[in-house]
Amino acid sequence: MHICSNETIGGVEYHWTPDTGKVPLVADMSSNLMSRPVDVSKYGLIYAGAQKNMGPSGLTIVIVRDDLLGQALPITPSAFNYKEQAEADSMLNTPPTYAIYIAGLVYAHIKQLGGLKAMEEHNQAKAAILYDYLDASTFYSSPVARADRSLMNIPFKLKDEAMDDAFLKGAQAKAMLQLKGHRSVGGMRASIYNAMPVEGVKALVAYMHEFEKQHA
Question: What are the extents of the domains in the chain?
Fold first, then answer.
C-alpha cells in the first residue's frame, strides 16, 4: 500500500498511520519527513527527497525494513536495488557528498532545537496562526477539512479570484514570493516548511489583513 503522507498541491496531510495489516505500507514523505516524529516501525518503506526539510535537492533518504530487501525485480537498476545499496553502505555509486554534508548540518541543527518533537510544536504553532486567520475571515477560505490540513502547505482562496493577481503583486512588493497556487487548483498556497520562521507566517497574515481591509 502506497501513500503520500503530505500532498503539497491540495494541502492534505496524514496525521495518522493507516493500518494495512500484513501488507507493507510504503510512504512518500518528501514534504514532511523531519517535520515531526514518525513511528518508522509501522512502515515497510519510507522514502523522501531531501529538498523540503532536510537539505538541497539531489539527495533521497530511504528507510526500508530488512525483510523487504532482496525482492527487487530483475530489471531494477542497481542504484534502486536497496539490497545492493544496503550491502554497500549506500555507496554503490559515488554519493552526492555535498548534499549529504548539508543534510548532516540540518540534522544537527534540529537536534540543537530540541529534536523532532520541538519541530512538530514549531510547525503546529506556525500553521495555527494562518489557519486561525483563514477560519475567522469571510474574505479568504481554506478548502481543506480541518482534520486533514497540512502543516507544511496551506492553500487558500480569495472570495473573488479576480483579485488574485493584485494579491500576488502586493505580496511580491513585500518580498513574499511563490504564493500562487498550483495551476491545477488555482488560488494561493503558502509553503511553511521547517525553515520558515514564525515571523514569516505572521508577516503573511499581516499582509492578508491589510489586503482584506483594502478590498473587502
Answer: 2-113, 115-215
Burial class (CB in 10 A: 0-12, 13-18, 19+), 11: buried
Tens-place pLDDT, residues 66-106:
999 999 999 999 999 999 999 999 999 999 999 999 999 99
Domain 2-113 sits in CATH at 3.40.640.10
| Triad 142, 148, 152: Cα angle to 5° | 75
Contacts of 205 (CB under 8 A, 6+ apart): 129, 130, 133
Task: Report d(CA 185, CA 32) in Å as an integer.
Answer: 21
**CATH domain 115-215 topology:** Aspartate Aminotransferase, domain 1 (3.90.1150)
Residues 52 and 83: their CA atoms lie apart, in Å, by 26
Which pLDDT value is given to residue 216?
A: 80
Q: To which H or E segment does residue 153 belong?
A: strand 153-158
Which grid coordinates are listed for 52? 523540503
In tens, the pLDDT along 149-159 reads 999 999 999 99
